[in-house]
Design a protein that fits this description.
The complex is a heterotetramer, with two copies of chain A (161 residues) and two copies of chain B (498 residues). Chain A is mostly beta strands. Chain A has one helix at 155-160; strands at residues 2-5, 10-13, 16-18, 21-24, 27-31, 36-41, 47-54, 57-62, 65-70, 84-86, 91-96, 103-104, 109-115, 118-123, 128-133, 140-141, 146-152. Chain A folds into two domains: 2-72, no CATH class; 74-159, Beta Barrel (OB fold (Dihydrolipoamide Acetyltransferase, E2P)), CATH 2.40.50. In chain A, the strands form four sheets. Chain A has a seven-stranded antiparallel beta sheet, with no helix packed on it. A four-stranded antiparallel beta sheet of chain A has the order 10-17-15-12, with no helix packed on it. Chain A has a four-stranded antiparallel beta sheet with strand order 14-13-11-16, with no helix packed on it. By secondary structure, chain B is an alpha+beta fold. Chain B has an eight-stranded antiparallel beta sheet, sandwiched between helices. Classes of the chains: A mainly beta (161), B alpha+beta (498).
Chain lengths: 161, 498, 498, 161
């Protein structure tokens, strides 16, 4: 059983090994080489896709489009942070616009970062109160590093919006 | 001229190095410590390591001139970005007894300072955008200085009127530029523009131009040699931008006709002549719906989007740069535009997440091929995209007999382009090509913001796609280590061709 | 016209399929049992397997028409070679209610039989090579028949004079053609030419032409639509040949001037008009040093070397074929030649061993890239070159502003081209490009035989090369299994683009 | 010790493993990936080559040129046939031009083959007498298959030429 994160919830797929390939429902999938795959649905001619797994993601090119699918590993759920504002990319902190205790509205800028010679603003993901500030001006941060902790406003508040 | 040091990296370094090889010249690549083994170092006759990592290595003019001397190069090609529009560097190159492949330091200075350029152009009879130069020369960060700049900006803004553009005089490429729609936004915009300009250029001076809405960005390629000949090579339409960064360029412009081309061409030649320009340069204009055009700025270097001009004019711009720098007359005949060319810029960025730069391995990287497709890049499969450099990975250029065929060819090329491991804007570009404004050629500079106000949403994978992904998930994770190239800062790699 | 079956394989199938995609048409590939998973099958919207292995599968007209019907194709593009000049196949396609993307069967017949073509051209006022058509219709293998043919050939040969060329009336591509320098060689040459012609075309008739020494092979591209317009698109110089197979082609011809181009173009248009030609075709001429030219033959199909015409004229010939076949008028403006284009044919052959075809895996296959480089191929790294098919792997085409620059670009491209695992002619081509005749453009059809009388000798590896090879010898042997593509004869593969 | 067949005789090369690469005299060789190699001579900048081993051959691309180098394996010498005329490629036999006992001169045609729709002639490598004919018209042959055995003329004869 393979589980992917989807836009809402997750999607489970169960490939069944069969005759050198896999069967998933009415689909048959065959591996052609390191990165190329062939798949066919009942009656239709086989088609080609490129797919590789890189750590917890499967990257896929099919029908002219690229998809990046995040694998949900057993026991690894819930790892997305709630109320944490993280660095969207590696870079340097130019400005910290909030202090602990500040009330912020969803979408208001919290931190200004610089990466690749451009400024980027990290915005509040929801209304809330700043619980902690983990960085200071000039700090170099890694992608995904938590910059600010936000206490989200109560569920009642959110529900009213 | 026997050996050219290329003071750049990535796709433009590869482009220039290949032009040197084809011109029978040796080439010297330079590379930062974190780019040993990069494609451009392999293509060159010889490569010299620079000290330091990231863009700062390529910005160290002294080290580059030392590398030129040590490697026996007798000329320097700056590419674009980095030191290409730094008059002091051009001057230092020439003082070191090397040929500078570009215009004179004086021309760079007069066009590089956007305020001076405005004034020069106005004096030469070239129309400029209604606006206001500010005489303030203070560049400090102190709050008192800032308040005095703010006061004069506020005054000028009232005369020009809102909405307006605040632009860094030393700026370029959208850096240090802010749209201001009301007086309330002015202070924040000024502070941010000046800071960005200080970081990027070490010069915080700004000026003001009226914000022209629904205008087209149309630029004219000029070429001038040392024998007194200055020509224009038609226009490039670069209206499709995001945050003032060009995304999609085409030549000829769908808005052009022979008369307008002649007038804009003449204005561009006048602009170049006004600064005694020599070499390849680009005069940028804003073109309004009623056919009025205004000088925007002149780029005193080869442009990212030069290949579309090469495609339709048949002129090899980089070869002409080399020829002109070696003192020869340009070899360009009468202007004849053949077919239609389009370029899109392939960025390592995430269009579904505010176009933030993305990083990662190019685990699979299979560029499109076929008739009429040109792909200029500095990376190959197995390379790793780092956060240190500009996120532009490549330029995809198509040339076809008609605009309609060029669009079809570009769609086909984007569909065929496989990049896995690093998020790119390929899918976004593919959707962009289906917009009616793009199909009809009725593009303008704010198109992307207006059509994608909430950003871009990637397609939902089909059931079949999920099935293949599930099978691929059972495979071992693809090794994404980059080439184990030499990493000592002083090592140099080279390939010698027969 | 919505869906085009491409009755071919390799690079030309890929070329046509991409043109269909760009024209908004579906494409159907066909493949022999030993070519399942080949590149052309992946590029097409849909692919249909044929019964049998090797070229015979692609020569089975009935099976191909059945495949077109089964897959819903409503048109057939034959590419070149195989069924492309078979009037009976063209007729069968049209009788099956499908669009034939080519000239009428009558035009194919009148030009396909070289003797009839000679007579037609003479009547149309197009100059032909001094020679003699032979009325003998016997095609049997029996010795008595042969002796009677020999007698009449001997008589005709006396009139034409030695040296002469014995040519198969049904011939093409050098097959069934023999040079005869004296009467003593005549019998052996006739036997061998007839046998080759019988094998290749099922028709052993021959005719005689005077052998023109040091002549250039110059051909003119023509295009005619169903609306009464016939134009020429300039010439291609194809003088560099080996065993009457073209090796190096360029456009424009170094021997051309505007007046001669106009006269040869007019002769080519007259030739096409004489047979009510519709579509893309090529009229081949021999051009003598004094500027006299003679009709050689007309190829009633797209030509291998069509990309060089596309490069300099800006016309997409395959797109025009599709447009004309769908009943539209051609979209071609006035002739304007831009720059210079060169094509070399990449063969899997061993130039150091009598140019015998070679086979093997394409263990490493990295084609050259960069500005002005076009690479048309039907193979990719990992594929295996089999002995069953024509040894042409690819066409490498460069386009540059001048002939000198085009030569330099081609040298650079050949230097960059890495093919390991199968012997090719790349090294030979690279040496060819340095010949003074090639550099100066004073080429003629017997150049290769005269310059390389004892064949070509590969370079001796340097000490450094041997050292790297010794290290590589310690590595495990590279896996050279081809892609484990489906191999059932009835399976079909396809890729659907959005 | 690695031994390659050369135009005359053979060449021996002894790479010495050293610091993740190899040293051969004043040369240093490093492997970059599956097919790419870097090599440098004392003082000169490193250069790039492509090289792979395929069975008994090393294929190499360096300085714009391809080399195919045949490895001499221990005990595998002398395997080239003397006096044997072999098929230069896979194909069909169209004509056999000699019979057992025929005297032939070096360069005279022995067999006509057809491959890839072209005729090719297999020529006598030396003066001699046909000792055996192994194929007949219409036969399909593999590359390297012996078609004709030739008894070369005596050494004295050869020496006189």
């Amino acid at each position: 059983m393979v589980e992917f994160r989807a836009r809402e919830g997750s999607v489970e797929v169960q490939p069944i090994p069969n005759d050198g390939g896999w069967v998933i429902g009415s689909l048959r999938v065959t591996r052609l080489d390191d990165v190329r795959w062939s798949f066919e649905e009942d009656g239709a001619p086989p088609r080609i896709a490129y797919a590789v797994r890189i750590r917890d993601d499967v990257w896929l090119h099919v029908d002219g489009r690229v998809h990046r699918l995040n694998l949900v590993e057993a026991g690894a759920r819930g790892s997305t942070e709630e109320g944490g504002c993280t660095a969207p990319m590696p870079g340097a902190v130019l400005e910290v616009l909030v202090d602990v205790g500040d009330e912020v509205l969803a979408g208001s800028p919290l931190v200004v970062m610089e990466a690749m010679k451009m400024e980027h603003r990290v915005l509040a993901p929801a209304n809330g109160t700043v619980a902690a500030v983990h960085v200071e001006v000039g700090a170099r941060v890694q992608q995904g590093q938590t910059l600010i902790d936000l206490d989200s406003n109560t569920t009642e508040d959110s529900a009213q919006r | 001229m026997r050996s050219v040091l290329v003071a750049n990296r990535g796709e433009i370094a590869c482009r220039v190095i290949r032009a040197c090889t084809e011109a029978g010249l040796d080439s010297v690549a330079v590379f930062a410590e974190d780019e040993a083994g990069a494609l451009h170092t392999e293509l060159a006759t010889r490569a010299v390591g620079l000290t330091g990592q990231g863009p700062s290595a390529y910005l160290d003019g002294e080290a580059i001139i030392a590398a030129a001397r040590a490697s026996g190069a007798d000329a320097v090609h700056p590419g674009f970005g980095f030191l290409s529009e730094r008059a002091d560097f051009a001057r230092a190159v020439m003082e070191a007894g090397l040929v500078w492949i570009g215009p004179s330091p004086e021309a760079i200075e007069r066009m590089g300072d956007k305020m001076t350029a405005r004034i020069t152009m106005r004096d030469a009879g070239v129309p400029v955008i209604p606006g206001c130069e500010l005489e303030t020369s203070t560049t400090g960060e102190e709050e008192r200085d800032f308040q005095s700049v703010l006061a004069s900006v506020r005054l000028a803004a009232e005369n020009v009127g809102y909405p307006l553009l605040l632009k860094a005089s030393a700026g370029g490429g959208g850096k240090g530029m802010r749209e201001v729609h009301s007086e309330a936004q002015l202070e924040d915009a000024l502070r941010s523009a000046r800071r960005e300009a200080m970081t990027a250029f070490g010069d915080g001076r700004v000026y003001i131009e009226r914000l022209l809405r629904k205008a087209r960005h149309v630029e004219v390629q000029v070429l001038a040699d040392g024998h007194g000949r200055t020509v224009h090579l038609g226009e490039r339409e670069c209206s499709i931008q995001r945050r003032h960064q060009k995304v999609f360029e085409e030549s000829p412009s769908p808005a052009m006709n022979a008369d307008l081309r002649a007038r804009m061409g003449a204005a561009a030649v006048a602009a170049a002549t006004a600064v005694d320009y020599v070499g390849a340069g680009t005069v940028e204009f804003l073109l309004e719906e009623d056919g009025t055009f205004h000088f925007l700025e002149m780029n005193t270097r080869i442009q990212v989007e030069h290949p579309i001009t090469e495609a339709v004019t048949g002129v090899d711009l980089v070869a002409e740069q080399l020829r002109i720098a070696s003192g020869e007359a340009m070899q360009v005949g009468d202007l004849h535009l053949q077919g239609h060319a389009i370029e899109v810029r392939i960025y390592a960025e995430d269009p579904s997440n505010a176009f933030l730069p993305s990083i990662g391995p190019l685990a699979v990287f299979r560029p499109p091929t076929g008739p009429g497709v040109r792909f200029d890049t500095g990376v190959r499969e197995g390379d790793v995209v780092s956060p240190s450099y500009d996120p532009m990975l490549a330029k995809l250029v198509v040339h076809a007999p008609s605009r309609r065929q060029a669009l079809a060819r570009m769609r086909r090329a984007l569909d065929d382009f496989v990049v896995l491991g690093t998020t790119t804007n390929v899918g976004f570009l593919r959707d962009l090509l289906d917009l009616s404004e793009v199909v009809n050629g009725t593009t303008y500079t704010t198109l992307i913001d207006e059509v994608f106000p909430a950003g871009w949403t990637p397609p939902v994978p089909s059931t079949a796609a999920l099935a293949v992904a599930a099978c691929a998930a059972s495979m071992p994770t693809k090794s994404t280590s980059s080439n184990s190239a030499p990493s000592s800062p002083f090592i140099s790699v080279a390939r010698r061709l027969p």
